[in-house]
Design brief:
This protein has a single domain, classed as Spore Coat Polysaccharide Biosynthesis Protein SpsA, Chain A. The chain is α/β, with parallel strands linked by helices. Helix 8 runs parallel beside helix 9. It has a seven-stranded mixed sheet with strand order 3-2-1-4-6-5-7, sandwiched between helices. Helices cover 40% and strands 15% of the residues. Bound molecules: guanosine-5'-triphosphate (GTP) and magnesium ion. The site of guanosine-5'-triphosphate has 21 residues, from strand 1 and helix 3. The site of magnesium ion (MG) has 3 residues, from loops.
Length: 233
């Protein structure tokens, strides 16, 4: 990337929603700091009880607290409160490769997309993720969204994304939980936002790190969200 590229003088913010990610959050902050030396890195802690906030602060993140539980609630606050030209979002569980994120941000900063999705489903997701029902759920949601909203997305629910400022400030963020990524896909398809995907490798959570996703309960909420938005948006 040249010094005078589209990213010159532009502010990038890295957003990491976290709920009890103490085993991994410091590595995630360090990995993203290494590839975005000038970015503001935010960890939004959502009532963690395992010292996630301290670990994040020691690693150099700006830590903020969100009392309303749920990834969607956190995304709503982050999008409202943070000012930047480009936003990169990732999970705190060290499942996404930071080294792919600058190319994704570049697509946003050069004006080629409002949202760039890191597409896990076209690479290692189905062999890396050990919960078979997650794979099924991802395929089902992708098929429903693409059929109902005329999309051609490969990965609707990925946690690694880049967004433009206008996307972040316009996105309604009505989801409280894990439906938020699906809401982003439907919002984009219905409102003519440009979406691009970059294929990324995916790795499973390391030993000792615990998933917050209840496959059936959260899966049902995602399906309900798809139905709800069909009339709402
Ligand atoms: N702020 C906040 N973050 C959450 C909450 N639940 C999960 N997260 C974060 O959202 C990200 C994704 O959660 P995961 O449990 O990894 O869900 P997933 O990636 O869909 O599922 P796995 O494949 O099991 O990892 C992680 O960074 C979590 O810490 C929550 O209630 N609040
Ligand atoms: Mg995860």
């Amino acid at each position: 990337m040249g010094e005078r590229g589209p990213e010159a003088n532009k502010k990038t913010a890295v957003l990491i929603p976290c709920f009890n990610e103490a085993p991994t959050v410091a590595k995630v902050v360090a990995d993203f700091r290494a590839v975005f030396p000038d970015a503001d890195i935010y960890v939004y802690d959502n009532n963690s009880t395992d010292g996630t906030d301290e670990k994040a602060r020691q690693a150099g993140a700006i830590v903020r607290y969100e009392p309303l539980q749920g990834k969607g609630s956190v995304v709503r606050s982050m999008f409202r409160d943070i000012d930047a030209d480009c936003y990169v979002m990732t999970d705190g569980d060290d499942t996404y490769p930071a080294e792919y994120a600058p190319a994704m941000a570049e697509i946003v900063l050069s004006g080629q997309a409002d949202m760039v999705i890191g597409d896990r489903l076209s690479s290692s997701y189905f062999t890396e993720n050990k919960r078979a029902f997650h794979g099924f759920g991802n395929k089902l949601v992708r098929a429903l969204v693409n059929t109902l909203y005329h999309g051609q997305l490969h990965d609707v629910m990925s946690g690694l994304r880049a967004f433009s400022r206008s996307f972040v400030k316009d996105f309604p963020a009505i989801s409280e939980g894990f439906q938020v990524e699906t809401e982003m896909a439907i919002y984009s398809l219905k409102h003519g936002r440009t979406v691009k995907e970059v294929v990324i490798p995916y790795r499973d959570r390391p030993e000792g790190s615990v998933s917050k996703l209840s496959t059936v309960k959260d899966g049902a909420k995602v399906i309900a969200m798809i139905a709800k938005l069909a009339s709402k948006y």
